[in-house]
Each structure stands twice: as C-alpha cells, then as structure tokens.
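User: I would dearly like some help making sense of a protein record. I have put the entry right below:
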Amino acid sequence: MNRVAHQEGMTLISWLVVVIGIGVIALVAIRLVPVYIESYTVGSILQSMEGDPGLRSSTRQEVRETFEKRLNMNNIDQGVEDNLKINKVLGGLQLIVDYQARVHLLGNLDAVANFRKEAMIRN
C-alpha cells in the first residue's frame, strides 16, 4: 500500500495571522506600559506625601503646590494635577486623584485607562 505523505506545519497565511497577532499585542503593550508606569508614579507620589511629616499642618494650597512640584520632578504632564481633589475630613486631608489617560493606538483607535489613587495626610 502506498501512503500519501501529508505536509505538516503552518501555511504562509497561518504565519501571517500569528505575526499580525503578535504585532498587535506588542503595539498595545508599547503604548500602554508608559501609562501604567505613570500611574504607578502618581501613586508613589501620593504615598510619599502621606508619610511626609512636613505636610501635616499644611493648607490645601500648600498640599496642591507640593503635589504639582513632585509631578514636575517626575516629568508627569498629562493634566493629572487638574484632577487632584483635596477633602478636609476628620483627622486630616484626603487626597484623591481620579483621571483618565488616553493613548492613540492605530488609525482611529484609542485606548482609555481610568485611574483612581487616594492618600490621607493626617494632622
């Protein structure tokens, strides 16, 4: 009996689909990783302000100025400082940063990431 040999492996079209899929995933990662790094930096700025004893008796304006200075030092300029809310609560000041980061992906596609970071400056 003669057996017909079958080819095994991927076709050219299959390889193209795989390469395009990997390319799309890489593009999204390249565009979104900086946004998440920036969010982490904003969170660490708030945490450092929370532990700063020099801010315990500060006014809202002084806290806002400190936050803006620390954003500038870390080269964050996406309008994050405009989304800082400072609420006076029992025991201190509550800082809330609630913002969106929009990143252009491809063509008319954008990615939007929502972030909310909180900290408490105790009196």
Q: What stands out?
A: The longest strand covers residues 92-106. The two ends are 90 Å apart (CA to CA). The CA atoms of residues 60 and 102 lie 28 Å apart. The chain has a mean pLDDT of 90.
